[in-house]
Q: What sequence folds into this?
């Protein structure tokens, strides 16, 4: 199979779909790999390294999309990339379709097979291709929050860890999943006063055991969000409904009632955001202020530490990618229900129900079961 790795073109996105080491796995298995010129150079992966791994360097993305049978990326395809996709071609990347009607329409029109990293599952009903970037984003959320709490960056001038004689800052984390636990690890490490809200009692018990009482675990209710948001210096939005639009847990009224100079970091922004006042930002212009509260809503947070993120992502995506190449996409998905769960679009049909639930009323979409779609 011919594998294509175009350079990422989203704002300040330096990650790359395959590392040279991952390319070597594909070429060793007998596949041809085409890598766009300088696709990984910004994070230390040179053209020479890709050539040594057996890849061919291609000058333009148009040439890659025209020849490749399997496109491996990191971020969702931008509109001009969507228009280069074609029927019979497979796209393997993050998609986050639920809050993105334009991309959804373009992928439907392309006729391509589109597999979303964020909905591939595993035997524990977890999301193994989303997890590494959630780990990165969770850790970055506190790092970013601490930065923007500094007075010179628009914050209240609060040090999360405090100092002897001065109380530490208060961090509220909405959601105790992969993002939440990694945010908590960083916040606890800084010495902050940390509270995690979640609606799963079993998860709260796990977190209580993991942190040995160093974080407060609270069942998430409207009253709890009201109470803890009022006094928080930093709020991290870490909720996730796989493949679906994120619920709006923090309203505009909550934001209005927060302390002047506090910071909110919406890690769920890829899925539409979990704060009512959230709008996607970029690494170039990462923050804005509403009612005195600094909002950090960068939609590709892990791109800020692109080398670490690329290697972590490849560790997770490589086995599924090799299966797609070795068996062909259709057989690979029929053989592995977890990979099949990643199928979001196939031959103009939406095969992930949460996308239809989110966008069906806007785009007049119909849902088709993935196995039924593959039989078309």
A:
């Amino acid at each position: 199979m011919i594998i294509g790795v175009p350079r990422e073109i989203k704002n300040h996105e330096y990650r790359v779909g395959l590392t040279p080491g991952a390319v070597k796995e594909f070429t060793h298995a007998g596949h041809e790999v085409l890598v766009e010129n300088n696709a990984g150079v910004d994070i230390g992966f040179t053209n020479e390294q890709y050539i040594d791994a057996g890849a061919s360097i291609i000058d333009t993305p148009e040439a890659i999309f025209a020849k490749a049978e399997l496109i491996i990326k990191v971020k969702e395809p931008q509109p001009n990339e969507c228009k280069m996709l074609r029927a019979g071609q497979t796209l393997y990347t993050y998609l986050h379709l639920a809050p993105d009607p334009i991309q959804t329409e373009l992928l439907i029109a392309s006729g391509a097979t589109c597999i979303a990293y964020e909905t591939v599952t595993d035997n524990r009903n977890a999301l193994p291709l989303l997890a590494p970037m959630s780990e990165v984003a969770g850790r970055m959320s506190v790092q970013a929050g601490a930065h923007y709490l500094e007075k010179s960056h628009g914050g209240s001038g609060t040090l999360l860890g405090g100092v002897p004689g001065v109380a530490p800052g208060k961090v509220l984390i909405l959601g105790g999943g992969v993002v939440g636990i990694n945010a908590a690890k960083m916040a606890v490490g800084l010495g902050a006063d940390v509270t995690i809200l979640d609606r799963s009692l079993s998860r709260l018990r796990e977190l209580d055991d993991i942190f040995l009482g160093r974080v407060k675990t609270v069942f998430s209710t409207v009253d709890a969000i009201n109470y803890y948001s009022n006094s928080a210096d930093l709020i991290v939005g870490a909720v996730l409904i796989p493949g679906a639009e994120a619920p709006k847990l923090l309203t505009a009224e909550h934001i209005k009632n927060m302390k002047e100079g506090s910071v909110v970091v919406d890690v769920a922004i890829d899925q539409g955001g979990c704060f009512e006042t959230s709008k996607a930002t970029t690494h170039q212009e990462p923050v804005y202020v509403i009612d005195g509260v600094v909002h950090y809503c960068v939609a590709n947070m892990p791109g800020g530490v692109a080398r670490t993120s690329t290697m972590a992502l490849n560790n997770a995506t490589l086995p599924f990618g090799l299966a797609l190449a070795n068996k062909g996409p259709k057989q690979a998905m029929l053989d592995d229900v977890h990979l099949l769960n990643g199928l979001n679009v196939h031959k103009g049909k939406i095969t992930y129900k949460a996308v239809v639930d989110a966008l069906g009323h806007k785009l007049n979409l119909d849902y088709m079961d993935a196995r039924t779609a593959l039989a078309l």
Observations:
- The longest helix spans residues 306-327.
- The mean pLDDT is 97.
- The CA atoms of residues 204 and 306 lie 31 Å apart.
